[in-house]
Amino acid sequence: MDAPRWSALLTGWRAGNGPLYDLLAEAMRAGIRNGQLSPAEPLPAERALAGLLGISRSTVVAAYDLLEGGGWITRKRGSGTRVAAGAPRGANVLALRTPSVLAQGGKEFDFTIAVPLLHDAQRQKMREAALDAFEESLYYPLGLPDLRALLAEIYTQGGLPTTPEMVLITSGAQGAISLLANVFLRPRDRVLLETPTYFGAIDAFRAVGAETVGVPVTVQGVEAEAFAQAVQQHSPRLAFLTPTFQNPTGTVMPERARQRIAVTIADANLPTIEDDTLIDLGFEVEAPPRIATFAPDAPIFNVGSLSKLYWAGLRVGWVRVPVAHAGPVGQARTLSDFGSSLPGQHIALKLLQDLPRLRQQRREAVTVARDLLTELLCLHLPEWRFTVPGGGQFLWVELPTRQTSAFTLCAARYGVRLFPGASMGVDTLPDSFLRLPFTLDPARLPEAVLRLKAAWDEFQLRQGRERLA
Predict the structure, then answer these.
(1) Alpha helices of 70-195 — where are they, by DSSP H?
(2) CATH no. for residue 31?
(3) What is the pTM of this model?
(4) Which string of DSSP letters, residue by residue, matches 380-426?
(5) pLDDT in tens, 315-325
(6) Is 47 inside any structural domain?
(7) Which domain holds residue 59?
């Protein structure tokens, strides 16, 4: 059973009224209707699903009985339980790893995404900047010219000479990644990624039918030799790397490794996305030069965003495109949606004009939350292991279990939303990890960790009972 996939598919299945077996059956019907479960697809064994969901086997049996009676599934001795070939269903839907429903209001603690806090002064600043958009009489498919020029200047000052024509504005970093996936990939093409890595990139590449190939992340990021070997062995059409404060591990690739990887990219003429979204969030560690600085003529596309530095709701990102590719990528950007929101771009322009101060404010806020979260975890959950990162906004936490996906469902009953680390693996990743962002309001963190502790105690108790059964 693919535990991370099933935990994501059945997230929130208990919501509603009625017996648990009825709620579980309805959640599985929904998965069949929307195409996430395909005809003839095997379903988990009753005992395995019960263990994942923290319910009795009899509840799963009753749910399967309902589904079988309604013609949704079939059961056959020797071949297990499967989705019925004639079950009602919609179009095939990619089983997304990216959370599509976020916690609402203040009742839940959401650790599935990293969203910076927004204060009243920041809101007022955005309101004032947004008014400038109403002076425009046009829209800009490639982005607001002044914003493109400012970003080009920022890249140039950072050691990567850039002209405004090389910068395209997108709907967040995710928009840039999806844009490049659609430009460079076709079904069955191979794309090289770190593993674990950002789930949104995995989804974007698989959405266009590409095959994802993982290169393991070590304590110093992806190793240059391993990357070169993977390029030679798999002949990928695209690569995706986050060398600075890697998501989710927080590792930083050393400068020497960046130089060697740049040579590999240039020699193979391999289009590569260098994700810079966390580059400004260094606390104790200064980021080495970007990979692209060591191969300025190579097809390296640098992606950035304000989502991690300021506010995710802006949905303003960008991509620095090498001159040789500016034409086709710009054309694809134009055809995608004729450009991003002008109010958002005017806000971004205003904010980035004071980038040093913006960086410092964000670093200070995230450092406070990081230190508090690590302190609380050490106090209440000392058996959870992690390395405190020198930047970024995530803890990569290893739990003493191989059933972390099941624990996330247990934690949901305590009002804590978690993302199983195994879902960030390109290949098989042990189901022992959680990605915990330290972006929650520090005032709420003590209660969040206490709930995690209560959920963990219940989960361990249940695991102990199962071992004795």
Answers:
(1) 120-130, 145-157, 172-184
(2) 1.10.10.10
(3) 0.81
(4) H-TT-B----SBSSEEEEE-S-S-HHHHHHHHHTTTEE--BGGGG-S
(5) 899 999 999 99
(6) yes
(7) 3-83
